[in-house]
Amino acid sequence: MGKLLAIDGLNIVRRVYEASPEPDSAEKADIALRHALSSFRKLLGTHAPTHVLAAFDHGGPTWRHALYPRYREQRAPMPSFLRDALPGFHAKLAGEGLHVLVLPDVEADDVIGTGVLRWLAEGRGEAIVASTDKDLHGLIAQGALVWDHFKGEWHDDAWVRKKFGVAPELLVDLLALMGDVTDGVPGVSKVGMKTAAKLLNAYGNLDAVMAGAGILKTPVGERLRAEREVLYLSRQLVQLKTDVRLGVTWNMLAFETF
């Protein structure tokens, strides 16, 4: 059986870059990318995958921006020095035997979600996602595991339940209810993680919550009814697109240890 390692490239690069207190510069970008390359090598050595899907955001508008123009409007753009250095970094990853995927109109999360679910559906073996992105933790419900490279720890079903208060299959509904300030996903006003988890655990899923909202004589019930359209828009925004045309074969993603 094989082992797929899906790496959220910018999740690693940005965290390494932002961990350095120096002001933005070409030198800072160069140092950060050298450390990021070491992180990639460590991931490959730690997990010994048979296949690697290394995904990076393309940059620019995606299908989510077309759906909701205010998506990520508050997020600071990537420092220009780092963005300019990324093509060279991708070339170095290719030199390490990796096939880097950078696809327009979608996010790296969508690329990873598509690849991981396809791999698991075909019964090719285990799938590991290297990322700290909460959106990708929903893949645990389908049999994947998430690896936090920075803490050196596994995230599984039990971890998600402890962290978010719901099962992995309800994570999308939870994020839709509570929103995501980082990505500009609105959610329902004044509904935080604990309230969202309580609703989902009581009713079962988002649709069941909304079916019961009509009889909720509480401020939360009023907001759910008033913000129904925003809520379902939020769910679309946080849900992974899993039918991305990747343009690669498994043979192209095969990885051999040199």
TrEMBL record:
The 5'-3' exonuclease domain, residue ranges: 2-256
InterPro entries reported for this sequence: 5-3_exonucl_a-hlix_arch_N (IPR020046), 5-3_exonuclease (IPR002421), 5-3_exonuclease_C_sf (IPR036279), DNA_polI_H3TH (IPR020045), FEN (IPR038969), HhH2 (IPR008918), PIN-like_dom_sf (IPR029060)
SMART domains assigned to the protein according to its UniProt record, in alphabetical order: 53EXOc, HhH2
One MF annotation (Gene Ontology) recorded for this entry: exonuclease activity
One Pfam family per UniProt: 5_3_exonuc
Record key words, sorted: DNA-binding, Exonuclease, Hydrolase, Nuclease
Stated name of the protein: 5'-3' exonuclease
